[in-house]
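Please go through this chain and its backbone structure tokens and walk me through the local backbone shapes. Keep your notes short.
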Amino acid sequence: MKFEFVIHPGGDPEDILMTFEGAENVEVIQQLGLLIVTSSIGIYVFPKPKALKIDTVNGAVELGWQPDWDLSVTGDTVRFANIGSFNPLETLVLRLGEDLTSAPVADDDNLEWSTHFGHYNEATKVVTDEDNNVIVVGTVQSSSFPVFNGVQTSLLGFRDAFIAKFDYAAAQIFATFYGGTSHETGETVCIDGGSMLVGGSTGSNNFPITPPGNGYSQGFGGVKDGFIVWLRASGTVLWSTCLGGESSDRISELAFTPSGDKLIAVGRTGSEVETSTGGATTNGGFPVRNPGGGAYYQSARAGDDDMFITQFSFPARELLWSTPFGGDDLEFGGSVVVDSDNDIIISGTTWSSIPTDNPCGVATNNGFPLCNSGEFFQGSFGGGTYDGFISRFSSNGVLEWSTYLGGDGQDEIGTGSLAVGSDGSLYVVGATTSSSTSSVCGVYSIGEFPICNPGGAYIYQGTGGQEVFITRFNQDDEIEWSTLYGGESTNDHADWNTVGGNLARQASVALDNAGNVYVGSASMVFETDDFPTSPYSNYYHQTDNAYNQQQLGLTGRFDATVVAFNSQNEREWSTLFGGRGLTAATNNSGDDIGYSVTVSGDNRLYLCGYTASDNFPYRCPAQVTNQPWCSEGNSTTNPYIEAFISRFSIEEILGVEELSSQREDLNMRIYPNPTQNSINLVADYLSGKQVSIVISNSLGQKIQQSTETPVLGVLRKQLDVSQFPLGMYFISIEGEGATHTRKFIKN
């Protein structure tokens, strides 16, 4: 965070007053020169500002003094004191925080872990569990995948799904192939405590399924089926089934209800429905079930391919509700989230331009199912090639709201496109080529993508190219903020699955506990590097596409991207992320595609996808360096497409202390405080699971970390801080789905 106060000739810097409205506490530690502001979302630490003068010859020149902080005005208002000498005829600048004009030095940014693994594979979904382990699924087409504790140790078909799990220290817990003798794709994963549910598609008639009697069970039945596999935390299989009919079907996403008693699967089906609705297919059709009670139920597929929604009880895994969902043409994509009211929200992309003739029910004209019960409703097709759509169902399957979202171009919503905030807000991301001339909230025209500028938030209306869009709805389904994001000459999304087929993945969105928004995607640059990057503190910051076209004349096309907005939807951080390509290599040479983002309970942002670069940003902890899953470098002559996973610390955007993630029953004490040589840490009411103890400095940079196991629920640790420079520090316990922080002074 940086502020600059500019005092023009004749001005007095002592007239500047800074008021921190809503702050819980504002304090000054004069001996350290620190201003500390505590708020409901974290602690912000400001060292003494720098004083600079501006002249016409040398530009900004640092002066040899720094002002002090003065809290004497009121309890939450600060001014500058002890102003040094300066020329009143020159412009004076007082700069607070880090200088954000230059990129961070390697290994001194927030990129903590970054690696690629395997050959000709891609990672399509990343999630974390309650212990902050990370699980990645994807598709692999090479036998050199680094298997570890796997239930399937070799590639059986042309390509298989893969599932890999790592702990916080980047060590493998397990990694496995999963599939039959034809082809599979791994598309999605969701977490149930420590176990995980994986979904995807299979073309293998010998796909491994568990025997009947162990929950819903269906063998392979068509050209391609969806599949679901339930694995224990250790990676062994509890349940596996196909889900599909006589044609092509695939699962794109899985989600649990908040109580964990129902599992929702969405995807795409080209199959006819079964002739019996009992849940056991009798004619090779897609399995359907009508639970009654007004639940939405299509007794037949309406178009070429429809989306489907299927609900299982859990852990019994009985089929409760299953129906196609779509209109007269084609639907694909498929994201699903369940909010705190157990409403089921889905999204996707539709070619079906005919609206329903039966609002909130099943159409008789094969029109796309629409339901106008929210503040925002687009009841007509936008007029382009295809539109996005969003639909919400009650916990009983009743269609409550369903709308087109698009304009006169191509509007796509793919997998990973939905996130629900703690306040009930809904974030939707995707890609659009549609025009947008107005940014007035509530004023939308058919043929234009809806842009909403509430004031203060980031807004970009685009230039008619392919842009990522980010749209936020409130609990009444009213658009509160909607913007495009991209550059004038970029295609700012990736819309194919290189190894696994053509499942759309335009952009992925995730929220942290403080309501900050993270969007991962990819940017394609042809002639200029104009993707809008924005540095933040010492965070990873890459401004040019793959360091290649302008600098080296090489052939890289895509870089992954990460963009972060705060809870007021102001942009905080934006970066490209990738390496370079080679002129003599494959068509994908230099491509770095970001498919999925997620935020862990310990405030880490994970990004996964694939890379075909020979200098992809690599960073691995020392204890796993040169392991098969964490080794530096790709081929320098013919790079493979390789899955990657990268982890960024986001504690500074969150604030050092994330109060909403703390457990009130944990009694954490540190003493003595202040201290000179050592500090004692005691915490009660912990389980026997390992936790991390982290010490950070006042800038949020980690300077010490260890892993400890509580004994009988109590953690006791003495930490040596004798070699630390004088100053303020933060000590945190990370684990058990929360972070607990205390500050101390080294004197």
In short: The first strand starts at residue 2 and ends at 7. The two ends are 26 Å apart (CA to CA). The chain has three domains: 2-97, 111-654, 659-746.
